[in-house]
Design goal:
single chain, 212 residues, mainly alpha, 10 helices
């Protein structure tokens, strides 16, 4: 397994890699880098994700978002756990990445639609082509509605976030779009799944819930 993971010929799969690899990018996103290139990019962006930064800069926002979501749940009386988890994950990760110049609820819907595409219709050339075109259309929508406004704002006034860092590093808009997409996959969707599973266990395990 170690030999497989360290094989320089091995290619990233998952997280829509089949779409990313067709994009002709000049700078592959960090999720698809390996070896020295991956370590260098991880080191360059570590200041956004270190434990100290999370505790001092992001924890207040996390607590604020949780209070907002819980207040909404109390007001409505019921909600889907995975919807609440996605709201929290997107709200926090979007701030770290820099996707803060668009409607948050709309971005949540766009990301959810993208990553919720099923695989049942991928049999046959036409079905695979339709799935690919659907994915490209959703990527374009994400770019126009969420990423492009954030890029424009940070070209005028850089901030302490990932998009500002990528602009300073000379990344093109297309490269930034794909980087934001992969952060959406790794930082929002998987976090949603983790929160949902943790919440599920807490709801079904009363002693554990009381202990928390």
């Amino acid at each position: 397994m170690r030999d497989v993971l360290r094989n320089p010929e091995a290619k990233q799969a998952g997280f829509k890699a089949e779409l990313i690899n067709r994009g002709g990018l000049t700078r592959p996103p960090i999720l698809f880098l390996s070896g020295d290139a991956h370590r260098q990019q991880r080191a360059a962006t570590a200041r956004f994700f270190s434990p100290r930064v999370v505790e001092e800069r992001h924890r207040p926002d996390i607590e604020h978002q949780v209070d907002r979501i819980i207040a909404g749940l109390r007001n409505s009386g019921s909600a889907r756990l995975d919807d609440l988890a996605l709201d929290l994950a997107v709200s926090v990760a979007a701030t770290i990445v820099g996707l803060t110049n668009s409607d948050r609820s709309g971005m949540i819907r766009r990301l959810d639609a993208f990553f919720s595409v099923g695989t049942a219709l991928r049999n046959g050339v036409l079905a695979r082509a339709m799935t690919f075109l659907q994915g490209q259309a959703r990527m374009l929508h994400f770019h126009l509605a969420d990423v492009r406004p954030a890029i424009a704002a940070r070209r005028k006034a850089p901030q302490e976030d990932v998009i500002s860092h990528l602009i300073a590093e000379g990344h093109r808009d297309r490269d930034i779009l794909v980087e934001c997409f992969t952060y959406g996959a790794a930082g929002m969707v998987t976090t949603r799944e983790f929160i949902t599973m943790a919440g599920w266990h807490l709801l079904e395990d009363a002693p554990c819930a009381r202990g928390s």
